[in-house]
Amino acid sequence: MTEIEVCIDSVEGAKAASRYGATRVELCANLNEGGTTPSAGMIAMVREALATTRTTELYVMIRPRGGNFVYSQDELSVMKRDIQMSRQLGADGVVLGCLTEGATTCIDVPVTKSLVQLAHPLSVTFHRAFDWTNNPTSMEVTLEAVIQTGAKRILTSGLAPSVEQGTATLKKLTKLAEGRIAIMAGCGVRPDHVKLLVQTTNVQAVHFTARRKVLSRQEFNNIPMGASAEDDIQYEVDHEKMEAIRQALQELS
């Protein structure tokens, strides 16, 4: 059966993902920025929440900030500490990726490989930094670069704004990978499309966020706490989406 990875930012999300049969959770903070490294407390609590079944693996996002994937030496030092912290707190894997600076954006193989080696024996997913590359040589060269880092899977939308638009590329990537690295489709995975996506591309896994906006439980807030215009909004787990995707994929098995 196709693996299911749910991107979460809460203990509640971890419990729900496990209940609906997720293979893995990707634990992040700041999902509105594409995900950054969660706190030690959050990692520990999610590990405890998943410990009862041990059927859902915990992968921790290693990303010190939002924005691009070209990191300074100080930021790389933070990432190394966060990898060590994640391992100590019982994570099964980490999610990361580094790119080169300049007009031509490629996988930074030496830097990423050093992080993968530091993470050992944890498994590593190379995240959607893959979709920010623009290697003029070929997509195959970029794929081979990630394989060289030692990462076990790539999270990608197929170099497109969504998996639906990147379907042809996802299919090609899966074929080029030849089982040497897993291809996981993510960004815009929907219950009404996921079955066709898997049938068309043969990806080994799908990745999605299952949350929805609700009004904040605190009704009074007259002073903004940051740049976000959503101080009166919070997010809760979308149980229906998790179950719908699980059922759709179960029909393929």
TrEMBL record:
Highest taxon above the source species: Eukaryota
InterPro entries, per database record: CutC-like, CutC-like_dom_sf
Give the Gene Ontology MF terms in alphabetical order: copper ion binding
| Family to which this protein belongs | Belongs to the CutC family.
The name this protein carries in UniProt is Copper homeostasis protein cutC homolog
Identify the species of origin.
Answer: Seminavis robusta
